[in-house]
Design a protein that fits this description.
about 55% helix, about 600 residues, alpha+beta, Butyryl-CoA Dehydrogenase, subunit A, domain 2, 5-stranded mixed β-barrel, Butyryl-Coa Dehydrogenase, subunit A, domain 1, 3 domains, about 15% strand
Length: about 600
Amino acid sequence: MYTAPLKDMRFVLDEIAGMEEIAALPGYEHASPDVVEAVLAEAARLAGEVWAPTNKNGDLQMSKLAGETVKTPDGFKDAYTQFAQGGWTGVTCAPDHGGQALPHAIGMAVGEMWQAANLALSLCPLLSQAAIEAIEVLGTPADKAKYLPKMISGEWTGSMHLTEPQAGTDLAAIRTVAKKNGDHYLMKGQKIFITWGEHDFTPNIIHLVLARVDGLPEGNDGLGLFIVPKFLVNDDGSIGKRNDVRAVSLEHKLGIHGSPTCVMMYGENDGAVSYLIGQPGQGLKNMFIMMNNARLGVGQQGVALSEAAYQHALQYAKDRVQGMKLGDKSGKRVAIIEHPDVRRMLLTMKSNTEASRALAYYAAGMIDRSRHAGDEAAKASASARLDLLVPLVKAWATDLAVETASTGLQIHGGMGFIEETGAAQYYRDSRILPIYEGTNGIQANDLVFRKVLRDGGAEAAKFMGEIKAFAKTLTQKPSDDLDVIQGSLVKAVTALEETTAWMLANAKSNTDAMAASAVPYLRQFSLVAGGYMMARMASSAHGALHGGDDANFYNTKLITARFFAEALLPQVHGLSAPIMGGQKMACAIANDQF
């Protein structure tokens, strides 16, 4: 059973996200420590007591298409209803239409709890929040008044529709088309892989659909973003007639069985009534309002699955008695947590989870600063850092989730391969995370070509300079642990500077090689960023430890940070050669030689 790691979460919020500074930003004055404490505690209760018990049942029962709706697994609807009644959909939403306007850093911590408790169920509010943000940014006052109050309250949900059979990543190839018809459009077409596109939770679902605008040119310049309600909404906010959009089938998946992944059809009759938001031809640009939100949310899912898999494996390791402790000839059998290799695996799981959590919360703090900082320069600085971090959080945290869930299964041994223990579900559920909302290869290309090369490496250099400046401060504190962490971090960031310089030098002459090297480069960059987060937590823990209280917690932080620095961060150096030319054969080999 899942228990939210509240102490770890609070520590990261305070020491990495910077909650004291965030709460001082205009519009966040109400995010006082006692409010934050109450929000986190209640979220932990709902996640542990209501959501987590539905997780395994959702995996076994699965969602099923029943006529024009989807029957969700037993317990899901009640769990969602309690979530909605608690106001959790609107935690970070603007107050104009019922949101609580709490910082995104708090939203990141709360979201982690839902996702760790039941990933399949958590996808429903995650997609709703992405749709809400798109309407908040792009919608007219009438759109906002019509849709946002009931979406933010959780009375209605939202969904995001992008992918088509012939247009996965290549959204320019979209064929779903919307034709002008008076004050609205009529849409015809098909979408696949639509998460929570249909369900039995709420009386209405507000779909955000990327489609081609009839009359505009082919390609990206012809796309628009549309609101397509399941049921049309009258001007007074009441529900009208059923729209011409429905789920025609559900995908059969490796994991997240409780989450319905729908094939959606629009316009089987006259056409689905659709309302353009934003400008025609700007659909792809506008879609990224939802996409960036969703990508950070998927990184958050990676942290959550890592935490859940770690908790599951840790409990098994404490309970499972097998073998004798190494060197003990007494014949006494011990729990497997006593075996060095199991301890190594558990500490790897724990350290990677803590590092990825810190990076995700750090990114969430940048969202808050980019929107609420007191001056434009501070907003721009936070926005640039956030842009750099999004592919790191999405890709690294989700890759780690797969690795961590696999390690958890390994700790279970043969029992991990048996479904009854539950370890396999974390592995199956985690495997989608590096794929959806832009595969991790796409995230790597985004990092290299859009985030590093676009500004000539300026923001990357600024980040690395910040890491090096921080590392110097560690030498001022008398600690063997901090000395080790400092030395490892300096070597790692130096290696990253070298590979970044190679990327910049080869930007125009060796583009294919750079693209082939993008994934190991993202991994290297993420490891350094994660090492920086762990070093910052170690520094804070060292200071708090010498303050006298809670020695075990802070000692543990130093141990996990030192382990990351000694056992995990050195992977950076093994990636340098593959990045700087080691992938060239991938471009040289002919298609018929594979």
